[in-house]
UniProtKB/TrEMBL annotation:
GO terms for cellular component: cytosol. This is P-II family nitrogen regulator. The keyword Phosphoprotein applies. It comes from Methanopyrus kandleri. InterPro entries: N-reg_PII, N-reg_PII-like_a/b, N-reg_PII/ATP_PRibTrfase_C.
Length: 117
């Protein structure tokens, strides 16, 4: 099992969410965060003055999947739908999961990640 954590632009959330749902991955956690990458924020100009915003609004999207094949599919979907081609499109991290438990039923492992009722 794996946890995929993707940091994406807030304006791309709906596109990514709908695409993941259509691809068969409806379960996700969405967290509003602030952060920066290599671009170290952005520079604004106002009345000939410059100021830097170094922490930008981002979305942290978490998706748990049972197999490596699912990891690749989810990564492909996120990359395709989160991409603008400009700096700041985000990052995707893949983390091994030791276990998962569905609180309602007590199901564990891959059964807890199943989308079937």
């Amino acid at each position: 099992m794996y946890m995929i954590e993707a940091v994406i632009r807030p304006e791309k959330l709906d596109d990514v969410k709908e695409a993941l749902d259509e691809a068969g991955y409806p379960g996700m956690t969405v967290i509003h965060v602030k952060g920066r990458g290599r671009q170290r924020g952005i520079v604004h100009r106002y009345r000939d003055e410059e100021y830097r915003t170094d922490l930008l609004d981002k979305i942290l999207l978490k998706v748990a999947v049972p197999t490596e094949d699912d990891v690749e599919k989810v990564i492909d979907v996120i990359c395709e739908h989160a991409k603008t081609g400009r700096p700041g499109d985000g990052m995707i991290f893949v983390i091994p999961l030791e276990d998962a438990v569905r609180a309602r039923t007590g199901e564990r492992g891959d059964d807890a990640l199943s989308t079937e009722e």
